[in-house]
Backbone:
């Protein structure tokens, strides 16, 4: 379908033919949203500029409008049936006749006579407020307008659902409405009616209390309508028909003793609200539901909680059957009969007696821990469900039963906290992991609460234990160690976590016993594959599993089937990514496999195979990293990076020659992905271990060592390896190797402002690339020579060089080279005063770098974009881009780039009235440049001098000097923290 799909409610999302369209800048997004929301209306250009950039000068606003319009047009599909954007000299409009769908328009077109299902279909598109995160004045007004329409139709939907007695739908839609944060009373009233229909008066009262509490935040009380409904329901004066829920006939006294034998847990149940509702919803549409998941994941507690909520929905009750103690399949029907109180009739098999008893019953039967009795449980479920129309069965098992008509629900781990939330205690407290661990730990450590001081440690424990509830419970019971000591010893978690509940099932008393239970249930081939798969870090593909794990006792042809069995038994997780299935284990399961691998004496053999596989992967990928396949290949290496690291560590210990080959093969990947320090250390270590390596391998390793040292700003560390590498290439007579190495030498000279030496190296390299006909090498040298021309002030020549380079990279389809050349072209355009063109080049460079995941160039292009945006009179946007750039530079350890960002923040601060902060930032940047030996070019130095002058003029001499020295005394991290903090003001 060629239609343009646009979602503005709850997000900003544009798709064409189901593929995302990237309108990357916020101003362009805002313009597009404004136009499409008023499709068919022609807006005068000056009006649009004033609405979208109200605080900018008229000329600047008009320039911004032209640029944003260009970006919108560039992003939209080319050659549509009808143009989306229609313009003339005076006005701009979104073409209402073009083929598009907009969620907000669908909402506005809902009629008052729409049916319930029609309302549900349209209201499902409302995923939140209009354009969240957009703060334009016009957005606020349109946001209120659309929410009022949504609110009106939601109130209609609640009323219609009540008329139709669709109580489950009310529970779903009512809670969804409330989660949007507007405190809607109609939703609370509908929920109270739904809970009353289910006979759950405790939830009626709880819902009313939620309503009172939420409205109190707005300073209001519930309306008379809401209060009156609650009083009528509480007094039993209002009867709500139950619809699909089991009813209690009017006038019939409800049995005060619930018909159930459900266990009563001794500890609170935490989280899982979504899973509970999903279990209840599935049981309304399926008669056999199995909760699957690995051991200790919380299947039993979830089943208890969900079943408890359903007691009053089944006339004949909810009955719990514990199967863990059984070892004989034949005993399964007997235990079920015992729970139900069924006695065997003379001359009739017990299962027949059970079937006859249940024939007219309406109840829920819960079978807990079925995994060791799978066949017997599957047979029982089939026997009972085919003879009892109103019986439903809920089971828990590490694998599904495999019965006809069975629905399975995989129970996930508890939500694991995000490290980015460490500074936000309130966000961390929402994590189910954190809640469970802190509550259980507080039972043995009175007074323990989550604080800023212990947040990192608690988060580390929860993340490393994979969100497995039982593992968290066991960790919380360790009282002889501090929280920090627990976190430090989780590498030996099976020894550490041994203080379980003595009344629990034996296999739930220690973490090792828990995993032993799963292991012992497996046939031998599956045990072998489990332990061998534990060699993978971060996941694997089927081909990788066959290559590394097949052989000896396992035929490679068996691996796929055995792997699928491990997935079925919740020991391996399969996830599809971009059409390829990757597999992984929870870390606890993987570590157990590692122990078994060691015990079986297979560790060396399997790790050596893993190294061979990883080395082949890296060496096959390396020549493709600078081709049209680069995006796919980089993504593959990203996915395998944990395995590549692990293989390199093993090679360093056991086979130094292969360690050097692997390190060299990863050189380009390390540089592009910003793993500069890690790559340099690995290559230097490997070169030191193999001094007699083949000349070509050594020369390549030395070249990468020099290149990565230069990227760290360690120009002294470039000299020796670059000289040795050049000598080796000359001995080998390898023109390509020599040309690449001369390029790195030129880069180092350029960064040290030795322009004559840089030009000589680049020119020599260019000649070599021309001799061998290497177009990519030619394009790279052309852009490098353009940099030299730019730094020496010959901007006309610089632009010619860069435009020629961009053309070659486009012809080659080399996006990595194009990223660099576009950024360099932007720099030249900026020097020539062509800020509009510069911004366009930077933005294309950023977009292309993002496609590749090329962090270093993203950061530099963001820095450049921030500078030109500032020159265009947008200091707030400039500060945002500097902040994004600094975060990436910090992540990849690019010190020279960090200095650029500090100077950028200083520029904005000086001209925004915060000269004191500007002086500190300038001092910090100067100190950092001196520390890494990264001087500024003449042009850059001239601009910096102007920033210093502006800053000095706004401060007394003594205050300026003190602030400057304070900045110089900062560590790099302190300077980064200071800049990021100041940028949020």
Residues:
């Amino acid at each position: 379908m060629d239609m343009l799909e646009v979602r503005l409610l709850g997000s900003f999302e544009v798709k064409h033919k189901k593929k995302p369209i990237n309108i990357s800048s916020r101003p362009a997004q805002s313009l597009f949203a404004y136009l499409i929301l008023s499709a068919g209306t022609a807006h005068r250009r000056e009006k649009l500029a004033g609405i979208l950039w109200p605080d900018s000068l008229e000329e600047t606003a008009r320039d911004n409008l032209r640029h944003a319009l260009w970006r919108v047009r560039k992003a939209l599909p080319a050659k549509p049936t009808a143009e989306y954007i229609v313009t003339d000299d005076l006005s701009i409009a979104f073409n209402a006749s073009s083929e598009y769908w907009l969620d907000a328009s669908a909402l506005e077109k809902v009629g008052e006579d729409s049916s319930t299902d029609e309302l549900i279909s349209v209201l499902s598109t409302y995923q939140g407020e209009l354009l969240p995160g957009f703060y334009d004045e016009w957005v606020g007004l349109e946001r209120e307008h659309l929410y009022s329409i949504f609110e009106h139709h939601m109130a209609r939907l609640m009323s219609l659902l009540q008329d139709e007695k669709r109580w489950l739908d009310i529970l779903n839609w009512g809670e969804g409405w409330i989660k949007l944060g507007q405190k809607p009373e109609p939703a609370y009233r509908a929920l109270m009616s739904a809970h009353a229909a289910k006979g759950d008066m405790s939830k009626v009262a709880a819902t009313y209390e939620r309503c009172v509490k939420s409205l109190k935040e707005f300073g209001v009380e519930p309306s008379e309508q809401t209060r009156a409904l609650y009083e009528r329901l509480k007094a039993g004066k209002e009867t709500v028909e139950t619809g699909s829920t089991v009813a209690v006939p009017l006038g019939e006294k409800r049995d005060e003793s619930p018909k159930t034998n459900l266990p009563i847990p001794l500890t609170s149940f935490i989280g899982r609200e979504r899973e509970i509702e999903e279990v209840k919803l599935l049981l309304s549409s399926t008669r056999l539901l199995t909760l699957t998941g690995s051991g200790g994941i919380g299947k039993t507690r979830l089943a208890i909680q969900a079943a408890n909520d359903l007691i009053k929905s089944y006339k004949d009750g909810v009955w719990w059957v514990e199967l863990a103690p059984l070892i004989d399949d034949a005993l399964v029907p007997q235990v079920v009969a015992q729970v139900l109180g069924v006695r065997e009739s003379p001359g009739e098999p017990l299962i027949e007696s059970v079937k006859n008893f249940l024939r007219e019953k309406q109840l829920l039967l819960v079978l807990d821990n079925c995994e060791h009795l799978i066949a017997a449980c599957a047979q029982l479920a089939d026997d009972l469900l085919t003879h009892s129309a109103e019986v439903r069965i809920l089971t828990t098992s590490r694998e599904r039963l495999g019965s006809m008509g069975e629905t399975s629900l995989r129970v996930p781990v508890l939500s694991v906290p995000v490290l980015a939330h460490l500074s936000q205690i309130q966000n961390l407290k929402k994590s189910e992991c954190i809640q469970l661990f802190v509550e259980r730990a507080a039972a043995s450590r009175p007074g323990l609460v989550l604080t800023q001081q212990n947040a990192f440690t608690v988060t580390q424990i929860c993340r490393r234990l994979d969100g497995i509830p039982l593992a968290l419970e066991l960790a919380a019971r360790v009282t002889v160690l501090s929280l920090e000591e627990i976190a430090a010893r989780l590498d030996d978690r099976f020894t550490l976590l041994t203080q379980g509940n003595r009344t629990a099932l034996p296999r739930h008393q220690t973490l090792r016993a828990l995993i032993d239970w799963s292991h012992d249930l497996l046939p031998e081939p599956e045990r072998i594959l489990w332990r061998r798969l534990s060699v993978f870090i971060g996941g694997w593909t089927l081909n990788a599993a066959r290559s590394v794990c097949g052989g000896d006792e396992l035929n490679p042809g068996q691996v796929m089937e055995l792997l699928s069995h491990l997935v079925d038994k919740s020991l391996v997780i399969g996830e599809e990514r971009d059409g390829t299935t990757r597999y992984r284990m929870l870390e606890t399961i993987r570590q157990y496999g590692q122990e078994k691998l060691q015990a079986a004496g297979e560790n060396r053999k399997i790790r050596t195979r893993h190294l061979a596989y990883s080395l082949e992967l890296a060496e096959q990928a390396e020549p493709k990293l600078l081709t049209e396949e680069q995006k796919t290949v980089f993504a593959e290496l990203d996915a395998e990076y944990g395995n590549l690291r692990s293989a390199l560590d093993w090679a360093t210990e056991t086979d130094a020659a292969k360690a050097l080959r692997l390190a060299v093969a990863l050189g380009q990947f390390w540089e592009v992905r910003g793993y500069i320090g890690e790559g340099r250390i690995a290559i230097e270590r490997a070169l030191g271990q193999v001094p007699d390596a083949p000349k070509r391998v050594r020369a390549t390793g030395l070249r990468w060592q020099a290149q990565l040292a230069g990227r760290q700003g360690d120009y002294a560390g470039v000299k020796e390896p670059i000289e040795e590498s050049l000598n080796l290439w000359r001995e080998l007579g390898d023109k390509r190797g020599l040309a690449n190495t001369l390029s790195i030498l030129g880069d180092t000279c350029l960064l040290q402002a030795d322009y004559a030496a840089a030009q000589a190296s680049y020119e020599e390299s260019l000649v070599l690339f021309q001799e061998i006909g290497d177009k990519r090498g030619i394009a790279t040298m052309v852009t490098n020579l353009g940099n030299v021309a730019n730094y020496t002030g010959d901007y006309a020549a610089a632009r010619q060089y860069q435009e020629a380079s961009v053309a070659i990279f486009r012809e080659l389809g080399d996006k990595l080279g194009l990223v660099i050349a576009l950024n360099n072209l932007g720099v030249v355009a900026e020097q020539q005063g062509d800020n509009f063109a510069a911004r366009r080049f930077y933005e294309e460079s950023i977009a292309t770098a993002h496609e590749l995941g090329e962090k270093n160039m993203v950061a530099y292009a963001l820095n450049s974009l921030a500078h030109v945006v500032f020159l265009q009179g947008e200091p707030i946007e400039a500060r945002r881009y500097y902040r994004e750039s600094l975060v990436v530079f910090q992540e990849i350890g690019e010190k020279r780039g960090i200095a650029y960002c500090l100077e950028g923040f200083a520029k904005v601060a000086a001209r925004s009235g915060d000269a004191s902060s500007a002086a500190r930032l300038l001092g910090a940047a100067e100190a950092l440049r001196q520390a890494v030996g990264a001087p500024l070019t003449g042009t850059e130095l001239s601009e910096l001098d102007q920033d210093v002058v502006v800053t000095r003029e706004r401060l007394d001499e003594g205050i300026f000097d003190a602030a400057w020295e304070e900045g110089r005394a900062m560590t790099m991290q302190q300077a980064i923290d200071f800049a990021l903090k100041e940028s949020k003001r």
